Amino acid sequence: MYIILAVIGFGILIFVHELGHFLAARACGVKVLEFAMGMGPTLLKKQGRETLYSLHLLPIGGFCAMEGEDEESDDPASFSAAAPWKRFIILIAGVTMNFFIGFVMVIVVYAFAAGFVTPVISGFMDGCPYESADMFQTGDEIYSIDGHRTWFYTDVTTYLSQGGDEYDIVVIRDGEKLSLGSVEMTLVDYPTADGGTEQKYGFYFTTVENSLWNTVKYSWYSTLNFVRVVWWSLGQLVTGGVALSDMSGVVGVVDVANSVGESAATVADGVLDVTYLFALIAVNLAVMNLLPIPALDGGQILILIITQIFERLTGKKLDPKYAGWLNNGCFALLMAFMVLILGNDIWRIVSR
Fold this sequence. Notes:
Layout: H1 2-27, E1 32-47, E2 52-66, H2 84-110, E3 115-124, E4 141-145, E5 148-149, H3 153-160, E6 166-173, E7 176-184, E8 188-191, E9 197-200, E10 203-209, H4 212-239, H5 250-262, H6 267-289, H7 297-314, H8 320-350
Antiparallel strand pairs: 1-2, 3-10, 4-5, 4-6, 6-7, 8-9
């Protein structure tokens, strides 16, 4: 069931992305030649007034083909004939829809939460060394750590666990921001109920009850956290913190979604857990598509900017076919990369 749910989830994310391009193109008066879901052999197709709608066998992609997108066109309703600001809106619409659907998915999940644990200190454990007039006090909201905004108590533990003993911490106290400067903090051993010890910083945090406003607010914060996770992951990939073999494609994500769903206590919890996972994937797709790589939306936007600069400086119009060649070449490389990741996913599954 969770495999089917994951496949449906991918279909939804692809659909809303292409729907964003489609609706923006229509709103900007640009002709859409074909709106396609999936790749590979065509299963269904229907010709509209000016757009061909098609459904393909493999649920791993889709496209919104516009007149004059990759070549010169004399049609006044072509993409190349549209004003630069309209082309920008069309290009950015897909990632905007992905980010929005991710936000909506988090709202759905958080609507069932009993409450949210905030970074507001409600008290200290016995013997906590960080309670003083010069350091933390009850009621302080830990606003940021080393420049990173904290919205949940988990943000506090995340940024305090990233190495080092000194942190630049800002709190909100009595409604005003207060910098505590460079604070030296290390984990302290605290006794547990079974007679052992556990390392903690010694804070108790405030839990706020769920409400419509809190659901929307903390869903927004969680969506922004997803963006940070994606950028951190990209940084790790560039610096070698994670290997290419650690990456997952469609098959790998479906496998993870199935594992997440089956490990839940109930079917309802499993559905919510998979929904939350796909909210992260939706934001991941939005951020990845904004990378300045030709064949991705970010690359298209970069080409648009470069084209406008070229035309302003030279007074000559740059033939769209050159951008088309670049996009097609990079698309082929992107497909080859996806095949590589697909093979890695399959090998990981069959070899475990």
